[in-house]
Each structure stands twice: as structure tokens, then as C-alpha cells.
Structure prediction request, 95 residues.
Amino acid sequence: MKQEYDFSKGERGKFFRENARLNLPVYLDEEVLSYLQERAKSKGVEVAKLVIVFLSDFTFDILTNIEGYICTVLVNWYRRRCGTPCLGSKYGRQK
Prediction:
């Protein structure tokens, strides 16, 4: 590498493409990959398709239940920190 680079003649945004699609590589553990390959084979689909379906369902579940999830996380954190029941259980959302 050079010690210094001259960007004075550079053109801002020259390679920017508004609708460009970025495909991220995903690296899985051997055990996870083997499991997904077996499931995909038994269903007759590609591993990528199986992962997309799984992530879509998972994301939908998280987004539709985010309030309850955040409340649960905060209540559990408070209980661990203080060792006492959370006031939110009395005044907050009831399950």
C-alpha cells in the first residue's frame, strides 16, 4: 500500500447505484448447514429458499410481537437486577 492516496480528482457518487442489490454471504456452522441441507432435500427445495422462508417467518413473528418481547426483556432484566417483582406487572400490560 502507498503511504498516501490522492483523492482530489475523485468523483463523489461515481459508483453509487440507487437500486443496487447487495447479496450478503452467510456463513453457517457445519451442524446448522447439515441440518438445513437435510431439511431442504426432504422438502425438495434449495437451502437458500428454505433459509429465506425461515427468516421471513421469524422476522414477521418478531415484528408483530415486538411490544410484548421488549416488555418481557425489560421485566426480566429488572427482576434479575433488583431481585423484586417489577412494578410493570401491576401497572403495565397484563398477560
Summary: Helices lie at 30-43, 47-64, 66-82, 88-91.
